[in-house]
Amino acid sequence: MKAVxxxxxxxxxxxxxxxxxxxxxxxxxxxxxxxxxxxxxLHVLDHGIGLPGPFTLGHENAGWVAALxxxxxxxxxxxxxxxxxxxxxxxxxxxxxxxxxYCDNHASIPSYGGGLGSDGGMAEYxxxxxxxxxxxxxxxxxxxxxxxxxxxxxxxxAIKAALPLLTPxxxxxxxxxxxxxxxxxxxxxxxTPARLIAGDxxxxxxxxxxxxxxxxxxxxxxxxxxxxxxxxxxxxxxxxVALDFVGAQSTVDLSQRVVGRGSRLTVVGLAGGVxxxxxxxxxxxxxxxxxxxxxxxxLMEVIALAEAGRIRAEVEVFPLEQAVDVYQRLREGxxxxxxxxxx
Length: 343
Ligand code: NAD
Ligand code: ZN
Ligand code: ZN
Hints:
27% of the residues lie in helices and 25% in strands. By secondary structure, the protein is an alpha/beta fold. The protein folds into two domains: 2-150 and 294-342, Medium-chain alcohol dehydrogenases, catalytic domain (Quinone Oxidoreductase, Chain A, domain 1); 153-289, Rossmann fold (3-Layer(aba) Sandwich). Strands 3, 5, 6, 9, 10, 17 and 18 form a seven-stranded mixed beta sheet that branches. The protein has a six-stranded parallel beta sheet with strand order 13-12-11-14-15-16, with helices on both faces. The protein has a three-stranded antiparallel beta sheet with strand order 2-1-4, with no helix packed on it.
């Protein structure tokens, strides 16, 4: 089978031929329908994750159960499933409450998950180490559903933690209307009455936000002008929740400038920005959070929202063979919503 492989830091991904793996005891073989192309992969390709290659990329996957390893029960061949991405130890306190994204034993596990140290879903098949990491998709199309497991789950986890602050007179700022950001917009619209302000430096992404019904979509190229406009929109209370899906110094700084007292500043993007604290800056009462991915039960909740038609990943579908070009398009900001590779 063809697979898109991370080889080493600073090298482009390579498409190679691999044998179809067979599931060992307790494992499940999944036939991949779609693998989402996440911006995190660009960080992995450029800077590595401290884990040796090669491994098959793709940490945002959905498909169908193809074969069960010895002892696996409760699934059958052909079941449509999403693959839960952050693989924990499965036994610690965090994993027992389904938050494998915060596994207590992460430091001793030699992989973050499929596509992030272990072989992922940019291939015809992938091995999933346990059936607990698969969530049924019901009637959802597995190609469209693939981004739910990261592009939707990650903002869902961040937004759910902020829900008590997202009251009708509150303002929420979403920076970066790409794969994660376009899902964040829909999740906020589905879950909260707060006033939504979207920021990006790309005119196409701002147009996308407006098409999704965002009234306040602003160009953040000029930080001073953007901060002034956001402050005017948010009013005296300031922005109540800032969700930064870029994580660059400029977006972290902008978020820090516009949040009010008693707010929440959430940095999801991994572009290397630093939050500097000085007295009352971020303002007093502001919580800074750095969420990572989401829990397995939250993935079930995200899938339920999609099944109910409340959220929908906008996907651009490409054949697996075009992976190298698709990564380049993502780097240049030429993907609307999420790119999904299909084998
Ligand atoms: P993407 O490329 O699809 O979208 C990024 C968006 O940010 C684009 O619309 C782009 O125009 C915009 N942007 C870039 N620079 C900007 C700037 N300076 N100001 C405003 N907007 C800017 O990326 P994605 O797949 O949505 O991922 C977003 C970030 O989230 C990445 O850094 C990724 O690594 C990270 N991520 C983190 C987690 C986590 O659990 N913490 C999970 C998944 C992804
Ligand atoms: Zn990702
Ligand atoms: Zn654990």
